[in-house]
Specification:
single chain, alpha/beta, Rossmann fold, about 45% helix
Length: about 110
Amino acid sequence: MGGDGALALAVRLGAGRVAAVVATSPAIIAESASAYAGRLRGIPVWAGCGSSDGFAGATEELLAELRDRGERPMGGIFPGCHDAVFRRRMLPRQLDFLGPRLRRTG
């Protein structure tokens, strides 16, 4: 599952069941970015994409739409492209984002 799949699953499960979602280089287009933003209400989002990635524009659109709707997404556009090097470089940022949002249950 990639970034688009992570967003789709978060939307499907909803804020009551999702502590946070991370989307790395989500393969989305501007139209789906707007649709996702409208359905991610209350779910903390980290979305990031490489500046040389063809999906950078839609990722920027997703982040902007979330902000316009009063959400506080993290992430952004960083140097890099749609590859494993970029994903490895983003991992520490993503873990920093997820850590405080996850809690033990049971």
